[in-house]
Amino acid sequence: PSYLLLLAGSYVSYxxxxxxxxxxxxxxxxxxxxxxxxxxxxxxxxxxxxLQIPLAIFLLDKFRIxxxxxxxxxxxxxxxxxxxxxxxxxADLGGLTMIVLLLSFFIMFExxxxxxxxxxx
Length: 121
What we know:
Blueprint: H1 2-24, H2 33-50, H3 53-62, H4 68-73, H5 75-87, H6 96-120
Helix pairs in contact: 1-2, 2-6, 3-6, 5-6
């Protein structure tokens, strides 16, 4: 299932998200085809890895490595570390890539915690 989640995230990103983000920069010149393709691939694989979050959260709780309560308590430090990592990465499109990655992570993490919380009841 992990491999399929990675492929599904990469496919959705490449088919829908990348063209949508590049439509915003239609007036800006692309200086390098390599840089443009690398940014599209980075975004595709990043979203593919983001779809691994629900599986990782489930397995962390299932194997009792990190409890649900601990994950909920450490949300804010995790978000701050993630913001620092993503904003220090080299992404193009005027920060849109970074914002999309942050929002995707936030949605996937919160949705995963919500579903895990429902399963604990």
